[in-house]
Design brief:
Helix content is 24%, strand content 34%. By secondary structure, it is α+β, with helices and mostly antiparallel strands. The strands form four sheets. Strands 1, 4, 5, 8, 9, 10, 11, 12, 15 and 18 form a ten-stranded mixed sheet that branches. The protein has a four-stranded mixed sheet with strand order 13-14-16-17. A two-stranded antiparallel ribbon has the order 2-3. Helix 1 packs across helix 6. The two termini are 22 Å apart. The mean pLDDT is 92. This is CRISPR-associated Csh2 family protein.
Length: 291
């Protein structure tokens, strides 16, 4: 398998993309820069749950509705061989895992990795009080009052890589990457909870190279967000300049095999000063649209 690099954007409106347990579950923030942060583990959780809902077994999940540790999860395995694990657990093929078992610890380094996501815009937090119909203590006739923290609007960007060398070791399949593409388009919407409703995927690129050596670097360094109004609150109030990114890809076209993509029409893309459709500016590449 060859190397791949990934750019992924989704937005969050009046929701909590990734609560910080050390901050009363407030959205994770770089307060100095007013930037919203989302961990790679949060993104992987969406992907895992989506794949599990499709019928693919995963390693990192609950058992019989209960949270278990890694050792507890392995107790349900029919076998504990490398062949069985890599054939049956798609998230191990993708993300790797450590399986601590007294007699035979197994560690797999996942070929698919993301760094932390961050917002392209400055983000404001919304804090409100919420009241439950259930009391905080038995005998208390009033409902419990808590805090609800959300972002007003955040356009979040992730960068990821697929290591061709590591893919060989975990036996990652081309079909797995096709499922990853679909998960990036559908998982966030389909895995929505009360605090996560309001998130939508806006842009996805998976650039597949011709070898297992090529790395062009973090694609987020080559995109620029423009805000049409102060205090952005909606996807229609921004545009994304992809000129440098497209030029980066064109200049390395001989290293690229295919480009897998989807682009939401609501996100305005700009190339060389004009609004464009992504498929048009990348028309010279072997394009595969994620359906």
């Amino acid at each position: 398998m060859n190397n791949n690099e990934i750019l992924y954007l989704y937005d969050a409106k009046l929701c909590n993309p990734n609560g910080d347990p050390d901050e009363e579950n407030r959205p994770r923030m770089d307060y100095e820069r007013e930037v919203n942060l989302v961990s790679d583990l949060r993104l992987k959780r969406y992907i895992r749950d989506y794949l599990y809902d499709l019928g693919h077994d995963i390693f990192v999940r609950m058992v019989d509705g209960k949270v278990v540790n890694a050792e507890g999860r392995t107790k349900g395995f029919k076998e504990f061989t490398e062949d069985w694990i890599l054939e049956n657990l798609i998230d191990v093929r993708m993300f790797g895992a450590t399986m601590p078992v007294k007699s035979d610890n197994k560690t797999f380094i996942g070929p698919v990795q993301f760094n932390w996501g961050y917002s392209l815009n400055k983000v404001e937090l919304l804090e409100s009080s919420i009241t439950s119909h259930f009391s905080s203590e038995t005998g208390n006739s009033q409902g419990a009052i808590g805090k609800d923290y959300r972002v007003k609007y955040s356009l979040i960007s992730f960068f990821g890589v697929v290591s061709g060398k590591r893919a060989e070791k975990t036996r990652l399949k081309p079909e797995d990457l096709e499922l990853l593409d679909k998960a990036m388009k559908y998982a966030i919407v389909n895995q929505a909870t009360r605090s996560k409703v309001g998130q939508y995927p806006r842009l996805y690129l998976r650039v597949e190279y011709n070898d297992s050596q090529t790395i062009l670097g973090d694609f987020r360094d080559y995109i620029v967000l423009s805000e049409k109004v102060e205090n952005v609150r909606d996807i229609e109030e921004v545009s994304l300049d992809i000129t440098k990114l497209v030029e980066r890809l064109i200049n390395n076209k001989d290293k690229i095999n295919k480009v897998f993509y989807f682009a939401d029409e609501a996100l305005e893309l700009v190339y060389e000063g004009r609004v464009v459709a992504l498929k048009n500016v990348l028309a010279d590449f072997n394009l595969v649209e994620v359906k």
